[in-house]
Design goal:
Keywords: Signal. Residues 155-174 are annotated as: Disordered. Residues 1-25 form the signal peptide. With 432 residues, this protein is of the alpha/beta class. The chain has two domains: 42-164 and 175-211, no CATH class; 255-430, Rossmann fold. The chain contains eleven helices and 24 strands. It has helices at 5-18, 115-123, 142-149, 214-218, 220-226, 231-252, 284-292, 308-314, 339-346, 361-364, 391-403; strands spanning 53-57, 61-66, 71-77, 100-105, 110-112, 130-134, 153-154, 156-158, 163-167, 170-177, 180-182, 192-194, 203-205, 260-268, 274-280, 296-297, 303-305, 320-323, 327-328, 334-335, 368-370, 374-376, 415-416, 424-426. The strands form seven sheets. Strands 14, 15, 16, 17, 18, 21 and 23 form a seven-stranded mixed β-sheet that branches. Strands 7-6-5-12-13 form a five-stranded parallel β-sheet, with helices on one face. Helix 2 (115-123) crosses helix 5. It is globular. The protein binds 2-acetamido-2-deoxy-beta-D-glucopyranose (4 copies).
């Protein structure tokens, strides 16, 4: 097994020098005098909303099941024995999905490839444990940008030969997949916080964007906290988010106006041609958040349109439009659209030969938004970072969007385009 005994030993030695008495599991470091009768995790978390994970405790171990990645993580206190009832998936396993992964906690030297994990780590005050990040990982938080700038960037290993993935119902029907893992061994890192279930015994998937409700997203701070024995801190932070969320919801529930919101985008290719328009399905957490702000989310499936007039009639009942377009760059990649891009992408004026705009309440009311108000020069947006955890602040944005008569401009994450609210471009130099 691939436990980082060297780290535990180093931490144990330094802990021994500073704190010769019994060490609580919630403090940073390993236990020196293991006592099988002791509960090493007096502070516990549980997920009470549709978060996508559940957690159970024994005296010296935590069992977390991530129902979104399908993985099970067994965390046991450093300096205590590994639970005997578990069989971690071997590092060279060809199994696709449902891995059982084992790590020792608390985390003290980890790699980042997850924006929401970065936000939760900052909220928990565990930044000093971030010791590396994935080569292409970008964050908005100025101080995390600054920290990552001075740290090693890790690669992914693509195993050879490729694994053979078996479809569940036929062993002969297979296709090749590559075995991917983060290259963390030479740096002595404990694990990588990432997004997907992977054939990597030391990667942990963090998935608040797939939680089914708003407070379920915020509960991922508890998930991260379990890796640091910071359950008490997480419970306190979450309780604050929950009570502010519920207070906001209670005050907006009386609103009699039920404006309709939908997600749409234009599909532009690199040569500048708009091939069509799409309406996106609203995810359950977003529909719930909008409803809690007194709004009504468009409830249809994702639909694509070739004809502008068909698209315009489909969105003609929307009071508010949330844009999800990307503005393609000629040589690949995409940049953040501004209002002028939307005007041409959707044909909101007559200059392009179409003029359906006056029949659209979202245009008439200047109620068109994107969730990229806080963005980094490396194209990360805080939407995938702090927004995933701070559901109370997000609901605050929805409430402002719901009550504005000509476009809210004082939102945190949602940028009003017709009113030309500028993007708040953040860089490491903004770290104060
Ligand atoms: C550890 O947990 C105990 C019991 O919950 C608590 O009294 C103590 O303050 C915690 N210590 C730290 C450093 O968080
Ligand atoms: C097996 O998989 C195929 C393709 O995914 C599917 O069409 C078929 O219904 C499956 N059969 C059974 C028995 O599950
Ligand atoms: C732009 O690209 C699209 C498809 O990629 C193509 O159909 C169209 O003809 C191109 N237009 C121009 C002006 O090159
Ligand atoms: C990020 O945005 C810049 C400027 O718009 C662009 O040049 C670059 O290609 C983008 N990067 C990615 C990875 O899309």
């Amino acid at each position: 097994m691939i436990f980082k005994t060297n780290i535990c030993l180093a931490a144990a030695l330094s802990a021994l020098m500073l704190l010769p008495t019994t060490i609580h599991a919630n403090e940073s470091g390993c236990v020196t005098n293991y006592d099988s009768s002791k509960d090493y995790f007096p502070d516990k978390v549980k997920s009470s909303y549709a978060s996508g994970f559940d957690i159970t405790y024994t005296k010296n171990a935590k069992y977390i099941h991530n129902t979104i990645s399908g993985e099970t993580y067994v965390l046991y206190q450093c300096g205590t024995p590994a639970p005997s009832d578990i069989s971690p998936t071997p590092a060279d396993s060809l199994q696709v999905g449902n891995w059982v992964k084992v790590v020792t906690v608390p985390g003290s030297k980890i790699a980042l490839d997850s924006a929401p994990a970065s936000a939760a780590i900052e909220l928990l005050g565990a930044q000093s444990t971030v010791a590396a990040s994935y080569k292409y990982f970008a964050v908005t938080s100025p101080c995390m940008q600054k920290q990552l700038d001075g740290l090693p960037r890790i690669q992914q290993n693509f195993g050879t030969p490729s694994n053979r993935r078996r479809r569940s119902n036929s062993s002969s029907d297979s296709r090749l997949v590559r075995r991917v893992s983060y290259d963390i061994s030479t740096l002595g890192l404990q694990w990588t916080f990432t997004t997907y279930g992977m054939n990597d015994p030391l990667s942990i998937a963090v998935n608040p964007e797939d939680a089914n409700d708003m407070l379920g997203k915020a509960e991922w701070i508890k998930f991260i906290a379990a890796f640091y024995n910071k359950e008490a801190e997480a419970n306190e932070i979450f309780a604050g988010i929950e009570s502010r969320y519920n207070a906001l919801r209670a005050s907006s529930a009386s609103s009699s106006t039920k404006k309709t919101v939908g997600l749409a985008r234009y599909n532009k290719v690199a040569n500048g041609t708009v091939l069509g328009w799409s309406i996106d399905q609203v995810q359950p957490w977003l529909a719930q958040g909008l409803a809690d702000a007194g709004l009504s989310a468009y409830s249809g499936d994702t639909t694509s349109f070739r004809s502008a007039s068909d698209f315009y009639s489909a969105i003609s009942g929307w009071d508010i439009l949330i844009d999800t377009s990307g503005e393609p760059l000629p040589h690949g990649g995409a940049t953040i659209p501004m209002w002028s891009n939307l005007v041409s992408g959707y044909g909101f004026t007559s200059s392009g030969g179409r003029d359906y705009a006056k029949s659209l309440p979202a245009v008439d009311n200047s109620a068109i938004y994107r969730s990229d108000l806080i963005s980094s020069y490396k194209n990360a947006t805080d939407y995938s970072e702090h927004l995933q955890i701070q559901a109370d602040v997000l609901l605050g944005d929805f409430v402002k969007i719901a009550s504005a008569s000509s476009g809210a401009k004082d939102t945190k994450w949602y940028r009003n385009l017709p009113q030309n609210v500028p993007v708040d471009w953040v860089s490491a130099s903004d770290c104060k």
